[in-house]
């Protein structure tokens, strides 16, 4: 098999998940008749392949995990929802009359977020958006998007971009996953090989696939709170609090040094 | 990326789906804590990749599609459930005190079927099992397993094996899917390219993947009723009835020539 062509995998996935849920737009159908569930395919560089239902990206608040609700209650001032996808959380903040910008690198996902009513959207990586003059009080990284810190190389650059976009006293509210509770030898072995290569154990090298397309390979970080603290050293951000109620998921609140 | 190693993909999938549903055996867990849904990954030779929830393989009768119930009501005498998987339908026939043998090529799936209480099981392809002296009145091909006819080369061989295993008056009850209702250009184009190569439009070339393993590539047939009739010509079987109530799915009953 040749390598699959690169495309806006996340955008296509979210568009179909939204169509299945809302009935708006063409849905994937078995035999041209029966709606199929939309599944995100995640390949890891050790050959592990997993599927995850994409319906989560368009879930309504009453279906969310409890920590998502706790995260939104901590938002204040102008909010930048980073990796906002189809607008799941940004739309809810907008409903609550908060000032919120949804940012994503996927044009397809932003198109769906706008179709669903999200008014303020940006298609860009944070580094590029950091050149704007807009400033924020809260940066939201939900849906495991603490993973966007990637690892030791990327984290300082990413965190500097957020600092450039920050008002005094700004906070990052990020949801992460501690991957180290597993005893599955496939994961434990992967973590070990990562560490041998100077990476974090849970520094996953992934690509996403949907239908005919793939993303390029990228790093996505599942880290412990201790590893997060290591990453924050020497950056303008410091850890303010951790909510571990939904372990292995956690919410980390980081605050700009004053 | 290298090619994934070949393994008992279906067996591993079914074992995990059964563990998630029953709590028996180790389950796949996110962060070592939260159960993950088990997803079957299906790759097609044009690069299309799809996921399907594997929970269907261990679904209880009240969750089945209506045509599965109609198929079981048509069973009589000794039944061979071909591609029985985790025993979904064979276990229900056994509960109804029918004589049923569950046959599958997956050792892992048969292990789960036996763990769930299925008494008479065979790990073999039908060709190999056709050397036995056991004879059957009904051959069941559910869960799209009409697809095991593969195409023009395989169908006569497969149907001859069933004839060798058949008592006089035996019937095949098979569930198929008519793939030609789609307008999706990805599928329509695939069907066209298949026909240009002398294959049936819906003669899918697939492999399954789960976690670290893949199957070898195999053909699996989604065909119209007209194509099925073409395949039956010159074989010991003739089409007796078609139930299209759940279109695009259908139940075909085939009877041995007397």
TrEMBL record, chains A, B:
Methyltransferase domain span: 79-165
Alphabetical list of Gene3D superfamilies matching this protein: Vaccinia Virus protein VP39 (3.40.50.150)
Gene Ontology BP annotations: methylation
Matches recorded under InterPro entries: Methyltransf_25, SAM-dependent_MTases_sf
Keywords: Methyltransferase, S-adenosyl-L-methionine, Transferase
Domain of life: Bacteria
GO terms of molecular function: methyltransferase activity
PANTHER family named among the record's database cross-references: METHYLTRANSFERASE, UBIQUINONE BIOSYNTHESIS O-METHYLTRANSFERASE, MITOCHONDRIAL
UniProt protein name: Methyltransferase domain-containing protein
Biological source species: Winogradskya consettensis
């Amino acid at each position: 098999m040749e390598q699959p062509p690169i495309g806006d995998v996340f955008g296509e996935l979210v568009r179909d998940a939204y169509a299945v849920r809302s009935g708006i737009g063409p849905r994937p159908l078995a035999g041209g008749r029966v709606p199929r569930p939309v599944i995100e395919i995640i390949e890891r560089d050790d050959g592990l392949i997993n599927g995850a239902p994409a319906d989560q990206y368009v879930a309504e608040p009453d279906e969310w995990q409890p920590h998502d609700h706790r995260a939104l209650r901590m938002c204040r001032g102008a909010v930048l929802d980073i990796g906002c996808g189809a607008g799941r959380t940004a739309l809810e903040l907008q409903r609550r009359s908060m000032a919120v910008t949804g940012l994503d690198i996927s044009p397809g996902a932003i198109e769906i977020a706008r179709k669903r009513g999200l008014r303020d959207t940006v298609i860009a990586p944070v580094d590029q958006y950091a050149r704007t003059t807009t400033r924020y009080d809260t940066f939201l990284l939900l849906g495991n998007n603490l993973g966007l810190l990637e690892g030791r190389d990327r984290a300082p650059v990413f965190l500097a971009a957020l600092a450039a976009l920050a008002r005094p006293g700004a906070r990052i509210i990020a949801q992460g996953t501690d991957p180290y509770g597993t005893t599955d030898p496939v994961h434990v072995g992967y973590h070990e090989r990562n560490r041998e290569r100077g990476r974090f154990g849970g520094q996953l090298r992934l690509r996403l696939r949907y239908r005919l397309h793939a993303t390029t390979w990228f790093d996505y970080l599942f880290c412990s709170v201790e590893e997060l603290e290591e990453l924050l050293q020497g950056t303008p951000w410091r850890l303010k609090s951790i909510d571990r109620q939904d372990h292995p998921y956690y919410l980390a609140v980081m605050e700009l040094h004053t």
